[in-house]
Structure prediction request, 272 residues.
Amino acid sequence: MAQRGPVPSSPVTAGPPEVSLTIPVAPEMEIVATAQADALGEYMDMARDKIDEVKLALVEACINAFEHAHTEDNQVHITFRVGGRGGAGEWLEIEVRDRGHGFDTAGVEPPSPHKTFEERRRRGWGLHIIKSLMDEVQITSGEWGTRILMRKYR
Amino acid sequence: MNETCRVSVERRGDIAIFWTDGYINNQGGEEIAREAYAELDRGARALVMNLEKTRIVNSIGISILIEVLEKVMERKAVLAFCGLTPTIDKTFRIMGLAQYAAIYPTEGEAIQAVGAPA
Prediction:
């Protein structure tokens, strides 16, 4: 799951249809990305509540990059893929990449309501929320940046 | 673009009812907090937040709502949410907000609950 290593390679064989989007690190740009998730979710007849979960996970992945990556290109790169056995429409996969400093994925302290309320450590929920809302999540990070790959089944 | 939520407030006795419309991020959360603190300063003893026109509350927005909740608890007031989408409800439960603030399906139920004598 979470690992620190070399930049992962992208698939080179013909894969599921994909849409790519690059957004600047700027306030509310994460909402631009959610419009694409919304459109693809509707295209594959995903339930509205599941689309909302995908959109929030995407928002969290984007703001995580905005806040922590310190990217040199000041951009976040997002790829949406729709696929599944025997054709499109079984799952929606979203890859969020930045070319920032990366982080030690094994060193991320899990948040908890106790820490939030009793110790007043209110931030640090982004990755936990992503993992809670999506069906599959892979997080890789290194000196090349960070990649969050997440998938939701219809 | 401007997706930040709009906040409107109405006072009914000592209950302040908030309606949000749009994305609650840091800016939306701070707007809600400003209005909430103003109502507490004006003596509100219960805040009801109707989020039925909001589909996304990010983790920064929720962290600000938690600050509001702590202020409400300091003032011995109560905070209730209603009109949550299943995703927002789930996220509030993940982050623990639901342990300290009441969540009701509808505004009417929320008002009835916070307005009932203790």
The radius of gyration of chain A is 15 Å. The beta strands of chain A are 3-4, 18-24, 75-83, 91-98, 136-142, 145-153. Chain A has a mean pLDDT of 87.
